[in-house]
Design goal:
Layout: H1 3-13, H2 18-25, H3 29-36, H4 44-53, H5 58-61, E1 80-82, E2 89-92, E3 102-109, E4 114-118, E5 126-133, E6 135-140, E7 145-150, E8 154-158, E9 163-167, E10 173-180
Antiparallel strand pairs: 1-2, 2-3, 3-10, 4-9, 5-8, 5-10, 6-7, 6-9
GO molecular function: DNA binding; DNA-binding transcription factor activity
InterPro entries: Cro/C1-type_HTH, Cupin_2, Lambda_DNA-bd_dom_sf, RmlC-like_jellyroll, RmlC_Cupin_sf, TransReg_Diox_bact_type
Pfam families: Cupin_2 (PF07883), HTH_3 (PF01381)
């Protein structure tokens, strides 16, 4: 994975200093430096904070930029991000096509674990969730609105709010997530 190198390249392309990226993302300058040097793998929450601060998707920072109309992604070639602390795994099931504005993701959360709090996306970004198996609690916004989903349940929300996913069950929770950035607006 070239996450750190891609963060550094994106930061330099946007002519940002480490300090500026730190202020935008809420991630310390020293942590960003370690990530860019690939000395440290961030949690999925921190990785998403960095991606949002760079106005990119996590998939873009993971290096998926193919733009052909027809793409086959073998199971063993799909991009996977695993949070070493929680075991939360994120499988990109679609190519990251920035011009299309859609990401199709399978998230897997071990029993009793959580995603951490994801930062708000840009205004206009929408998320669609369907639970394939297990139990999932979704917490949205500053008012901490909770939704408890079971296998087969779905949830749609406007993702310009903080959001968190918690496995409240006794088995692994697998849920599909579509992030639609078609209508994203800069902050």
């Amino acid at each position: 994975m070239n996450f750190g190198k891609n963060v550094k390249n994106a930061r330099k392309e946007q002519r940002l200093t480490l300090e500026e990226l730190s202020e935008r993302s809420g991630v310390s300058r020293s942590m960003l430096s370690k990530i860019e040097r690939e000395e440290k793998n961030p949690t999925i929450q921190v990785a998403c904070q960095i991606a949002e601060a760079l106005h990119m998707t996590l998939s873009q920072l993971l290096g998926e930029h193919e733009k052909r109309e027809s793409l086959f992604i073998p199971k063993d070639k799909r991009l996977v991000y695993q949070d070493e602390q929680s075991g939360f795994s994120r499988y990109l099931l679609s190519p990251s096509l920035p011009s299309r504005g859609i990401e199709f993701i399978l998230n897997v959360i071990p029993p009793g674990q959580e995603s951490g709090v994801f930062p708000p996306h840009k205004r206009g970004v929408k998320e669609y969730i369907t639970v394939a198996n297990g139990a999932l609690r979704v917490i949205l916004g500053k008012d901490l609105t909770e939704y408890d989903l079971q296998e087969g349940d779905s949830l749609y929300f406007e993702a310009d709010v903080e959001h968190q996913f918690i496995n409240t069950g006794t088995e692994e929770c697998r849920y599909y997530l579509i992030i639609d950035s078609h209508d994203a607006k800069s902050l």
